[in-house]
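Listing S7. Sequence submitted for prediction.
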Amino acid sequence: MADFGTAIPLDRPFDEAVETVAAALAKEGFGIISRIDLDKAFAEKLGQSFRRYAILGACNPGLAHRAATARPDVGLLLPCDVAVEEASDGALVRLVDAAQMMAMGDLGETPEIAELAEDAGARLGRVAAGLRDT
């Protein structure tokens, strides 16, 4: 099974972890353009309880614009998802591997997309490194 992301444990409460992740993403030019709280959706739609779990849609507008200009179908993979989930000892953050994501189908064969995936991957890598240092 391919590894399609990075997991980083954070020794802090869930809400603080979400704020920390958003700030780390902002340093690399990403904003949060969507948020899905799975725990709330599961409770509302299924009547099931679930640990706190948020999927943050992180977008770097410049990279997204270039990607959608090069290949409009890339919109099916945007934004970059970052998951923050409550854990017994704090929170767990999962960052998508942009290179793996953009290698779907023949996307990676488009030079502009491959270049953008490398750039996004480097930025998300710095986010991950920064989170590990917090």
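Caption to Listing S7: primary sequence and predicted structure tokens for the chain studied. The two ends are 30 Å apart (CA to CA). Strands lie at 5-10, 31-37, 53-59, 80-87, 90-96.
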